[in-house]
Amino acid sequence: MPLPYLVFRFSRRLVLAGALGALLAVLVMVSSSVWVREGSAGRVYDEASVPAAPVALVLGAEVYPDGQPSPFLAARLDIAKRLLDAGKVKAILVSGDHGRWEYDEPGAMQVYLVARGVPASRVVLDYAGFDTYDSCARARKIFGVGKAIVVTQSYHIDRAVTLCRHFGIDATGVGDDTVRIYTAPWRNSVIRERGAVVKAAYDMLSHRDPVYLGKHEVGVEQALS
């Protein structure tokens, strides 16, 4: 068979394989997005209308080297404080990354809240919320949360609520939009969320355990008492 013909056939197969791969990727992304939207349908509210729950679950985000929460994280914490002040929740579970000694999201979140008048006894720290899946799993399996208002940005809230519901938490959500003013970080986060939705679907289907589980912790129970 002539070499040019073999090259043509091989190239055509490569193009076909690439097209099929791209189609599969789109189908996976679309199906994952549909799963997330359906899982959170009717469960995302604004602050004023969200039904009361015992606990606000605040998901972690970037903390600066000086210990200050990033604007994205500060906005989440501000919502949780207002929910507490309004009597919508009785305790705040802050869940984030403390995988390195020098980087402590939950600790920074607690300092921020207490500095703004939230009683320390109402703030519970989860140091192993390395991602949304882990935070939701640990909220249920380690801290015994059965009902919660999840607080994060609006681009993230559907996934967060859906994952918490997957673990048996009666979850609703409040999403923040105030940090849209940070145009580039917001846009980048929205783009990353597309991949995160696929990862969330994979994590759910694989039934993986969180990076760290450990024993039952009574912090939420004590805060509610």
From TrEMBL:
A single GO cellular-component term on record: plasma membrane
Coiled coil regions in record: none
Domain DUF218: 55-171
Superkingdom assignment: Bacteria
Alphabetical list of CDD domains matching this protein: YdcF-like
Signal peptide residue numbers: none
Protein name (database record): Membrane protein
Species of origin: Paractinoplanes tereljensis
